[in-house]
From TrEMBL, chains A, B, C, D:
It comes from Epilithonimonas bovis DSM 19482. This is L-threonine aldolase. Transmembrane segments: none annotated. Keywords: Pyridoxal phosphate. InterPro entries: ArAA_b-elim_lyase/Thr_aldolase, PyrdxlP-dep_Trfase, PyrdxlP-dep_Trfase_major, PyrdxlP-dep_Trfase_small. GO terms for biological process: amino acid metabolic process. PANTHER family: L-THREONINE ALDOLASE-RELATED, LOW SPECIFICITY L-THREONINE ALDOLASE. It comes from the Bacteria. GO terms for molecular function: lyase activity. Signal peptide: none annotated. It holds the Pfam family Beta_elim_lyase.
Length: 343, 343, 343, 343
């Protein structure tokens, strides 16, 4: 029997409702390139859920694509981005942002989250204009790449700071569902929309085959984005497959139910480790956990489960990363918990 | 009742076999980013079908994406592309190639097809080096944007010419299935592979939800392409959906059956026009036809059918474009033919 | 004795006044990067001469650099340029504009000059948005690459058309001096400034060692240009050498005297050809002429003079190009005229 | 009387020999775009001095231009650069490298110098290919941006490491003259050439009006560089002004005499501070020094001299930066020393 994987949240296909909707609509003729009725309806639904009927909503295939599209369309050639050193755009996107001509100024952080003080330090160090770039966009992820989340107050402070300093605030929401359904969360989707210039709702890591929904809240940035999508090769001829998926995910809050399921499973595993006296690399309340284990404990868990060894702590200990998803099987989690108890 | 559309070949979803395969595999855990087993198997199948087990095969989402990835990864900054004036990269991709830094030299052609003489004329006009670019890649489409196809001899001549002049030959195969199953075709898929440096097999316009399969035949170009895919935002986390689709399309030659169906329907419609004494803008044998009609004939057909008016001929006549697809309904074609007869 | 060259207008160094000024100021300490007093004074002088004290003026090294800086700073990624097929940016700048990501739509013209009808034809052919680019900037050269000039009326019409269509009008003035001192000219420098969004005054081809003065007239485009100059490697540490040169050229209208000298010599040569019954490829009134000669006539002139054979007319005739400059020696022109008479 | 400036090494024009040579050659007709006889001779002279007759030598206008040309021409789109956090390309070039599409991985260093261990740490942190870039070029400056220099052994180690790891080694030599004539130097120009793939000899900061001489030592990189120069707007029509200047600088080792003069003046000032018990931010032996002074000492020196306050140390102390140059006046240095003694 194959090992069960906790390596990521995109190991399976998609939620069955999506497959059903693809089947039901399959032979209905539609306009191409995002001009289909499903996409139009999904956009309206999202505008309603984020409480901003004036937002421009676009569907694209994945997170790196969303990030490079947003950033390259918003900035002028000499404008730059500020991000945490753990930010996905800085570490794991093969220089996608720089490939569009824009530098990312990275800031070390304790928990993957930016504060106004972090941003101010970058501005302070780049006063020699025009020999230094003009900082213009702040990139944050929620939940972050290491599983932490922003509180409403933290996001409000960032938003205020950015407005005061003519900076755009852009939230990478590849795992926004997980952030907003975390037990530690105090923020609504409407809050996110009100406090950012642009953000996106990730589908790929929350039950879709592919797809992220970009919402442009700032009216000044709401024009001509479709040209960028086409130019960067991101406009699907059958845009319907993005619209259909987001229609299903947004209907009856399936999107949040799926994320909550992932979080719940992660928290169950976390509790099991904790009960066994095991500590964590960071305190997370979403679908990623980072327990610190001995080498022999790791070997034991590896017999039946797949996961990444995240960071070596010392000669005898490493932190591992376990990720749960919309489709994580409760029975297999039970098995894992059983094994954790006997470590 | 809604009009039936002959506007394009991507108006519906996908072939039912694909939906079935997506369902069957849905909960099987797989590695992400194209490292799944379905993609691996589909690549092997394609290598076999193109008779080149050493080809590098990559799956991406769409044609513009395939074109910009191939061209930007193959060329150095000062190298340029030669294409027909009707070439998709020159006309309808929002400057996607130029956005990666590369100029396209366009050549007017009678039928959308390039010849060595066309290419030579570009080289002759760019002798003032280094004040003029270094031409390095020849872009052709088969079938072309106006429905014509290359013969084996024509492709052989282009291939020889390109080799002699250190030019890469790249075939946009968004509609390669339609070209190779045309009644006028004398070329095999193996020929295409043997005579080009790079080409792709289009899925989006031939029954897939999305996806093009790029085959790199020239060993000198077979390295590091995966970095480019990731950097340009084209690497799907759930690469399985591309692999699964091409597995289905390539199995038992479904790919060619679907294209043949589209061609057959177009040829039936073409015959009906011809029998009625109607002439065509160009002589095509694939899934696109361009009959020249009077304005009143156009109005009549528009009552029940959707299509593009392609080109105004004079005050009383225009050419229209009718495109058939893998899913074009024979009954609706019968209705159209019936109406054509009574024009 | 070496042949005398009529190949271009940059074969010698610079006007002696410039060398004298460089010597006189050599040890005066100045701020770097264009913040020197000479540049400031030269900018004020230019603002006065173009009758626009609010224009932003920047000095850069050469024409290709000026063109790519202006275009890449003004356009958004999906915006494109319209130019004549003979436009320098389209033919002889190694794809410099495309290298910044922007397509140039070229238009065939009889005389190297664009009209509103030319531009309208490009707009008409690019209505399929967003699959086609957004045309945003019109590039013209005055004098053109083939020696012709715009009349005031022609420029006014272009300017009106561009304003009506939300297009920027940019004039490449590498040889603006020659245009404005042509016997056929009816336009002033103030007119040029009033009718364009951006233009530049070429120094390199009119007596400077290097240097073009860019004037940004449109207030909406007058910001942050200095970042682009630095980012593209075009900001000289010793910006003084550009300021000092333009101070000398603009003082007492030396700039126009030099251009007039070049034009006068060209017109003398032109008259000599004409008297001898020789015809021309195009009718020019600036410092470039294109007489059509027999092969044996060309061979005779080649004994003592260097020039380019521009275009083969038939087996026995070609057009040659003769260019005069600020430093063309009257005595050598006399010799050339003498030889023309005896052809 | 105006304050005397120690702010930079490009506050004056150029060495008188250069002005004389410009005057003497002024009316000699030459080919444009670097095809002149002076440039050809200067290239031969440099090939001889660096002991590599096979090196390709190119002249460009400035340091940022040289850096972006070299890096963008050498790297493929997904390849990246490693540099010290103080590297000029990382801090003060307005994102010029990123604007060509390439990320710079920065490394904190004590003294502005990279070691193999620094580079290894970057490689170690970027093992997740192809989600992370392919590191391909190491950028170093000699002398560095903070005045330090590489020893022969250090450069040898870097060179060996880079060869072992398929990395190119590129030296920014904007102040290479100062490095090689430092009292602490043990390396020859021939060594630099033998141990780097590409480097350049800076003219702008060592007595030229403008100009850097790029030497490409690695034969694999010696092709088509001229296309890049033209495409990036860096090819001067009157390339002669670069050739003439380097001919003068390289003749009789004027280049090194000028750098030595700058170093000597800086060392005189350094000795004066040291005698007065003043310490330094870093230990330098070239033309930049960073003494740490009290605020009142700084105010006193500011009465007659211009310089930058480099870094605040505490409430009452800051480090200042003093830069000397080829033209630094000994008498004014004497005055400064006099004032230092009385601080």
């Amino acid at each position: 029997m194959k090992k069960y994987s906790f390596k990521n949240d995109y190991a399976e296909g998609c939620h069955p409702n999506i497959l059903a909707a693809l089947s039901q609509t399959n032979l209905v003729q539609q306009n191409g390139y995002g001009e289909d009725e499903y996409s139009a309806e999904a956009k309206r639904l999202i505008q309603k859920k984020i409480n901003n009927v004036d937002a421009s909503v676009y569907f694209v295939s994945g997170g790196t694509q969303a990030n490079l599209l947003v950033i390259s369309s918003v900035l002028r050639p000499y404008e730059s981005v500020i991000a945490a050193e753990t930010g996905h755009i800085f570490t794991n996107e093969t220089g996608a942002i720089e490939a569009t001509g824009h530098k990312i100024h990275s800031v070390p952080t304790a928990d993957g989250k930016l504060t106004p003080a972090h941003i101010q330090s970058v501005l302070d160090n780049h006063a020699n204009k025009p020999h230094q770039l003009k900082q213009k966009l702040v990139y944050i992820s929620n939940s972050t790449e290491i599983g932490t989340i922003y509180s409403r107050k933290e996001l409000q402070e960032l938003s205020d700071y950015c407005k005061d300093h003519q900076l755009y605030l852009f939230m990478d929401g590849a795992r926004l569902g997980h952030a907003l359904t975390s037990e530690a969360n105090d923020m609504s989707l409407e809050d996110v929309s009100a406090l950012t210039d642009i953000f996106y709702l990730g589908g790929t890591k929350n039950g879709a085959l592919l797809g992220e929904a970009i919402a442009i809240n700032n009216p000044k940035l709401q024009y001509d984005f479709d040209y960028n999508i086409k130019q960067k090769g991101a406009l699907l001829a059958k845009g319907r497959i993005l619209g259909i998926q987001f229609l299903e995910l947004m209907k009856d809050d399936l999107y949040f139910d799926l994320a909550r399921h992932a979080n719940t499973q992660a928290m169950r595993i976390k509790a099991a480790f904790r009960e066994n006296g095991i500590t964590f690399l960071s305190e997370t309340y979403t679908n990623q956990i980072f327990p610190i284990l001995t080498n022999s404990q790791i070997e034991k868990l590896q017999r039946d489960f797949d996961f990444y060894i995240w960071q070596k702590i010392d000669e005898t200990h490493s932190a591992i990363r376990l990720i749960t998803s919309w489709s994580t099987n409760s029975d297999r989690v039970n098995e894992l918990i059983h094994q954790i108890k006997s470590l």
